[in-house]
Amino acid sequence: MQHVTMYSTNWCPFCLRAEQLLARKGVAQIDKINIEELPEARAQMMSLTGRRTVPQIFIGSHHVGGFDDLAQLERAGELDALLGSTPAQT
Fold first, then answer.
1. What residues does the Glutaredoxin domain cover (predicted)?
2. For the purposes of burial, counting CB atoms within 10 Å of the CB of 74, is it exposed (0-12), middle (13-18) or buried (19 or more)?
3. Which of 5, 13, 50, 89 could, after both became Cys, cross-link 31 (CB 3.0–4.6 A)?
4. Could you tell me if 85 and 72 are in contact, meaning their C-beta atoms sit under 8 angstroms apart?
């Protein structure tokens, strides 16, 4: 499974939703970078993504975008391949 990194804040509901979706996909560990606790991380995030909002999600070295982008990948059936996993059996 690919490594997941997410720029976030403590209060962001979309960050929580992204974590929940990734957990359902079997992602056990997310490297969370809190841009409120690490002010220099906000500048880093903006430099890497060109975006100011959280979450900003990376799967491996691929910048996914925010929660809406992550959810769109799931709806399109592309998230499992990006994560390097097989779809969960229901």
1. 4-64
2. middle
3. 5
4. no
CA angle 65, 33, 30 (to 5 degrees): 75
Contact 83, 23 (CB under 8 A): no
| Consecutive H or E run containing 64 | strand 62-65
Phi, psi values for residue 11, rounded to 5°: -105, 0
Number of other CB atoms surrounding residue 44 within 10 Å: 13
Residues in CB range of 48: below 8 A, 6 or more apart: 56, 63
- List per-residue pLDDT tens for the chain, 90 residues long: 899 999 999 999 999 999 999 999 999 999 999 999 998 999 999 999 999 999 999 999 999 999 999 999 999 999 999 999 755 443
